[in-house]
Amino acid sequence: MPASNLIRLRGPYAPVLTPFKADLCIDTGRFVEHCRWLESQGMGLAIFGTNSEAASVSLDERIELTEALVAAGVDPMKLMPGAGLCAIPEAVRLTRHALSIGAPGVLVLPPYYFKTPSEDGLFAYYSELVEQVGDARLALYLYHFPQMSQVPITVALIERLLKRYPDTIAGLKDSSGDWDNTRTMIERFASHGQGFSVFPSSESTMTRAIPLGAAGCISATNNVNPARVRALFDLLDAKGDASEIESLQRDVDAVRSIFQRLPMIAAMKSTLARARDARGWNIVRPPLQSFDESAARDLDAQLARIGFELAPQQA
């Protein structure tokens, strides 16, 4: 049975892009606008994920942005803040803050700087985080992204953490890009109603993943194609018409395939900049680089060929 104190998170989430001003300060107003638009399109908000440029956003900036969202009326229950930092005191502070504003879960990378840490070392990291936060409300989602973090989240580690903290370890985002790994995680931990939510990192896997018991997806391109991804999830969740599901899956795959061939953060920001007539959306923090005009025009042409248009923001 699911752990009694956990809210089992489900649905599609966007790892929300972070807009910057010309001086590289965060554009808080534009961030709030984008989050409110995503929320209106049916997205959960995985703020401070990889595509948020989270590694380039300071601890204080993350806290200030989270508070700005809540002050603007964004539902804290829609938030899944990224709280994975190498320094345990910083991860503890960020996690406590997420709990204080009412977020129902945090997404936590392993300590990614260190070379091939042992399973015991990773278990100790997550244990220290749980123990030092010391809050029964904590629902911790593990973040498996080995090609970036260089530190995998293994089946054995998950089993150890679930045995020690069954009321706290709530799920996992699998960004491995390996369908066999995603399927293993779903079948081992999420398909029997234990309250463990597995989120693949691409909407392109949803037709396979949701029927097996996946909770949704946390996908970069949910930043630009939220309504269609939400519609696909809802159809799958309701076991809807197979032909309609197939058609929607083709549509979201077409969008995803264009962006995933490109530097995704810069590409998505370029699309938002043009659709919103807001040049500031093009700005990324170094070491990333923005799209130049030639690359932006080529991206626009590719999206036009598949009939893609970004949904407008509400006035």
TrEMBL record:
The active site is at Y143, K173. Pfam families: DHDPS (PF00701). Belongs to the DapA family. Keywords: Lyase. The keyword Lyase applies. CDD domains: DHDPS-like (cd00408). Pyruvate binds at I218. This is Dihydrodipicolinate synthetase. GO terms for molecular function: 4-hydroxy-tetrahydrodipicolinate synthase activity. Gene3D superfamilies: Aldolase class I. SMART domains: DHDPS.
